Model the fold of this input.
Amino acid sequence: MKIAVVDYGAGNLPSVERALAKLGAQTERAVEPAQLASATAIVLPGVGHFGAFVRGLRERNLTSSLRAAFDSGKPILGICLGLQAMFAASEEAPGEPGLEFFPEEVRALPTSVKSPHIGWNQLRRLDASQLLGGIPEDAYFYFAHSYAAPASAKYTVAACDHGFPFAAVIECHGLAAVQFHPEKSGDTGAQVLRNFLESVP
Amino acid sequence: MTLARRIIPCLDVDAGRVVKGIEFEGLRDMGDPAELAGRYNSEGADEIVVLDISASHQGRGTFLETIRRVAEQLNIPLTAGGGIRTMEEGRAVLRAGADKVTVNTAAVERPELLSELARQFGAQAVVLSIDVKRKGNSWEPYTRGGRDSTGRDAAQWAAEAVSRGAGEILLTSIDRDGTCSGFDCELTAKIASTVPVPVIASGGASTFDDFLAVFTDGRADAALAASIFHTATHSMGALKEFLAERGVSVRLSR
Done:
């Protein structure tokens, strides 16, 4: 099993790599399409700006390989901005197309709540979830974001509320994506990563 | 479903060692940063802050190594800073394994630094640290570790900093720091009601009741303390149980 961790030119990759390595996974930083094609599974972590993120993916010609991986059902885990990038667009970068796996638009958290949404929050389970298997319903996860995808997005299996109900966990065939940071969510987060690795053939 | 109030142990680091400062003067060795951070991580801390309090410029390499060593011990967020003056220094801190960088003096002198950092790394990675002293009915920010007055108003500065891109405010009362007389709840409530981002209260923590007060009266989103955790006067678990029993949302299970 070889896990490609997508390196789009920014972001804190070492913490994701360290968390996966602690679970026994072999990771490789992917900067070109061939690495995604040969990987058993793909992790797409992201922090920062939606526009810079999707441009970084396009500049490395990674978008069509990600699409191909998604279409073939290869296990993919999107984290934070990695989840948001799977949607069609974001209010953070108008006119900048996302990966368009899902048709919705990522929206800014409203001014009625503190933004960024930073800290540990709980989830509302909407559907059966492979990724959340074995994790108590009242467990906390670490979030750090100012934008979010609406919980009404079709494959949302767990939501969180901050300003509006947003998608915290998405599962669609081989693909999984989380708005929180599993690599920063203590032992609970490690369980999420373990569940993902178990889904990898 | 509620956003938990965070408890954040702070490691003040000088020459690779955790030290304890009293009212910004006088230092005592408190141990190895990676060892302490690992202990707090396993005891249920919600985040770790590491601050470089060494004055010397040549200490920077040592500090980045400290961040790397601390980050290796954690599966919770890490914030680091102290003397960060430029975007490149901020980048180095994040590259070393921190999730957020704190800036203070340099942001007062050149507020554009906040926008530059936020544009590059996102507002969620930018923490503005403000050290304040009470002046009658308001609070004045001080820079350079509490030595220089700025002539500004803390609430106004906090609001400006957020508009420029700060995603969190780390608010320290110099008057209370190291005194064990409790957080300045009036100050924290003032800033927390002014800015639309989370506020981390710091300075003066001594008892469990101090934490309860800063989360209720003080409206803080997070509370930071150093010495009371280092000396093992208080266990993280007992503090959180205490707060949970009194209706404060905290993360209990790990």
